[in-house]
Structures are given as C-alpha cells and as structure tokens.
Design goal:
Radius of gyration: 21 Å
Structural class: alpha/beta
CATH architecture of the largest domain: 3-Layer(aba) Sandwich
CATH topology of the largest domain: UDP-N-acetylmuramoyl-L-alanine:D-glutamate ligase
Largest sheet: 8 strands, mixed
Number of strands: 17
Oligomer: single chain
Distance between the termini: 35 Å
Helix content: 40-55%
C-alpha cells in the first residue's frame, strides 16, 4: 500500500460516520492484543483549548526527556499529524503498514458479523498500536468529541484527566444542556487519576466534582487569575505563576494564558505521581510550544491572523482577543463555517469588529455552508459582506482591501486553516 492509497482508504471510511460507544473499538483493540493497556495517558476532554493544552503538556514532557506520543484531531497540513511521537508525525512508511493491518482487521470484524468501525475508531487503535510498538512512556491524547462514549475512553491507565473549557457544541450527540454535555465529557475521569480542570461554569464544575468524588480522586481547578504580572503580546506573552517567575509562551490570544496555566497544573499533577519534570523543562517546553491555527500571526503590515474559532465559546474568545489586541483598527474578515455549527451565534459575536467580511466555503463538502449562504446570513447584521469563490481569491481581495496598518483575520473552521496558511506563505515568498 502506497501513502496516497492509505490516506484514500482512511478517507473512504467517512461513510461509516460517527457512532458513539465503545463496542466497536473494544473489538478492534482485542484483535491487536489491547495495546492501550500497556500505555500511560494524559487524557484531555472539553470544548475549546484541548489542542493547545495537549501541545503545551506534550512539549514540556518531551523537553523533560520522555518519549511522548500525542494523538490529535483535526490536522492542519496533512493526515500524518494525527499520530506523533515527540512532536514528529508518523512516517509515511509506518502509516501505510498500520493502515494495511487495520484494513485486514476491519474486514475480519465485518466477516464475523460486526459493524464496520468508524474512521476515528480505526485511527485511535492505530495510534495505540504505534505508540506501544515505539515504546512511548506517556501518551497525551484528546478526545474526538465527547468523553464517556468517545472511542478514546477505552483506555484504563489515565494518570491525569484534563477538562478544558466546556461549552455548548456537538449538541446532537452530547445533549442540549451544559450539564448534559459536561456529564459526557467528565466521563473520562477514572479511578486512580488526578483531575485537572479549567475554571468552569458553576453547573459544569458541579458535574466534574461529583464525578471526581465518585472515584475518590484528587481534583485541581486551574484558575487563570492566579497568573500574575501578565504581559500580553502577539509574538510572546509572559506571566508569573506560583513559584515560577517570568514564564514565556509564544502562542497569541488572551485565552492562551489560561491554557498555559492549565498545562502547568497538569505537569504538577504528573510530578506528584513521580514523573521528573524540571523547572527548565517546564520553562523551555512552554516557550517552544507551537500550535498552528490558534490566533496565529501569518504576516505583518498588514497583520494576517488565522484562528480556528468554530463555535460560540471560541468566537467569544476570538472577539475578546480582537478587542484587546486590535482596538480601533480597521479589520477585514475571511469567514468560513460548517453548516452544523452555530453560525448565527458566531456571526453575532464577531461581526461588529469587521469593516469588511469575505465569506468562503469550507473544504468539507458534506458539511459546508456555501459562501453565498454564509454571506446571506452575515448580511442580516452587516452591510459590507461579499461571497468569494475560492480561498485564494479571498486572500488576494483581503490584501487588496487592507492597508499596512489594517488587520486581516481568517476564522470559522480549522478545515481550511492549513490551505490558507500555505496560500499566505507562498504569497510572501
């Protein structure tokens, strides 16, 4: 099997959709000898911030000398990014080998009368097998969507269960209330783990406390207000936290301070479990963490920022950062949103900061909201909106409209982030 064939095969599995529950992945794991049982995990659930916290924690652990697997979705540039060891993607050769193995196992399961596993289930088990075979000492992993019935929740050896900010998203699968969604996401909490959570809404925190109490496990609430002497910036941000002074991160956005604080508390929980992580490793890991597509500055004069804000809470955080960093600036949006997201609320929260809005369709044809449909929705609240045929055209128009002191911000979905970043980079070259 060639690399293109492997990727095509994985993409072909999308027809099997999303099926919450652990039955399919249990069958898959058993076929491979349950590789997940030989691994130790930091398991991350929540709505917004999973990827950033995962990147902080995994980079700190790598810097501390550990061999660290990390499993992420969605990817920005290419499929292989989903499965990484020490921030390096699985090789094309290895991916082909594991996909071939998974294809055979899936065919066996179907022949035995079982449902065909979903793509996420196949990817998850493939990651488990690869991490075990490569001798990973720790795996930092985010859930795909929920928690309790998420395929990743088959794991047993959870060292730290991490809950990032929980808000309304994926309601068709997780429930129509914040309490219901929190209950699903808190399902990653297991006996023997340490729970680390962001500061949540009261009803969410109550759910997490109840679940932690049910297993009699310690719980830490990471409070961003405990970060002192915060110095915000687009290229670097600094803060004090506890005994550590002048910590530095390079991820932009006001919310990244909260994500970094959460990651620090995860590190301290691991230290309590006997993992050796020095202050130097913590400092260097925070500083060297990269996570593309999260309020990422692609160019200057004009500033071109790309952000994956794709739900209400992420839109609030984006609006907060725009207001903080770009007050009284002329701003041009490139906006693309999936049809199954709360696009009305995203528009409502963000439109007021833009002088001109360009709408595009996302690459995901099955779920995309067309540029024209999105423009029609935006036009209900904003007069200066134009539907654009392609992302390339949107970038060119945005640069034509923008003066050197203006701001271009592209957001609404992570699905076009990689392509957009490549377009801007080529334009700069």
């Amino acid at each position: 099997m060639k690399y293109t064939e492997a990727v095509e095969y994985m993409e072909s599995l999308s027809s099997y959709g999303i099926v919450p529950g652990l039955e399919n992945i249990t069958n898959l794991c058993e076929k491979l000898g349950n590789p997940q049982n030989d691994l130790q995990f930091v398991h991350i659930a929540g709505t917004n911030g999973k990827g950033s916290v995962l990147s902080y924690v995994s980079t700190i652990l790598k810097t501390a000398g550990y061999k660290v697997g990390r499993y992420v979705s969605p990817t920005i540039f290419e499929y292989r990014e989903r499965i990484q060891i020490n921030n390096r993607s699985i090789t094309k050769k290895a991916l082909c080998e594991y996909v071939e193995r998974m294809k055979i196992i899936c065919e066996e399961l179907v022949a035995e009368g079982n449902p065909h596993p979903t793509p996420f289930e196949v990817e998850t088990v493939m990651a488990f097998a690869y991490f075990k075979d490569q001798g990973c000492e720790l795996v930092v992993m985010e859930t795909g969507m929920g928690g309790r019935q998420d395929a990743t929740n088959i794991i047993k050896n959870t060292l730290v269960a991490v809950l990032v900010s929980i808000s309304m998203d994926h309601m068709q699968f997780l429930g129509k209330s914040l309490t219901a969604i929190a209950t699903e996401k808190a399902g990653i909490i297991k006996k023997g783990c340490h729970v680390v959570t962001a500061l949540q809404e009261p009803e969410v925190l109550q759910v997490i406390e109840k679940q932690a109490g049910a297993f009699s496990v310690p719980m830490t609430v990471a409070k961003v207000e405990n970060a002192k002497k915060v110095r915000f910036g687009l290229e670097k941000q600094r803060f004090d936290y506890g005994q550590w002074k002048n910590l530095e991160i390079t991820l932009a956005g006001k919310h990244q301070i909260a994500n970094a604080v959460l990651a620090i508390e995860v590190v301290q929980a691991l230290q309590q479990k006997g993992y050796s992580i020095s202050e130097k490793a913590l400092r260097t890991g925070l500083k060297e963490t990269q996570w593309p597509g999260r309020f990422t500055v692609l160019s200057k004069k004009p500033y071109f920022v790309v952000d994956g804000a794709h739900n209400e809470d992420a839109a609030k955080k984006l609006a907060d950062s725009i207001e903080f960093y770009f007050t009284n600036k002329r701003i041009i949006y490139i906006m693309g949103i999936l049809r199954d997201k709360e696009y009305e609320k995203i528009i409502e929260l963000t439109h007021g900061y833009a002088d001109q809005i360009l709408t595009v369709a996302t690459p995901n044809q099955a779920r995309t909201l067309s540029a024209y449909e999105l423009a029609t929705e935006v036009a209900k609240v904003h007069a200066n909106v134009t539907a654009v045929d392609s992302l390339e055209e949107a970038v060119e128009i945005a640069y034509l409209l923008a003066g050197k002191d203006d701001i271009i911000i592209a957001f609404g979905s992570l699905s076009f982030t990689g392509k957009l970043m490549n377009i801007v980079e080529k334009r700069k070259a």
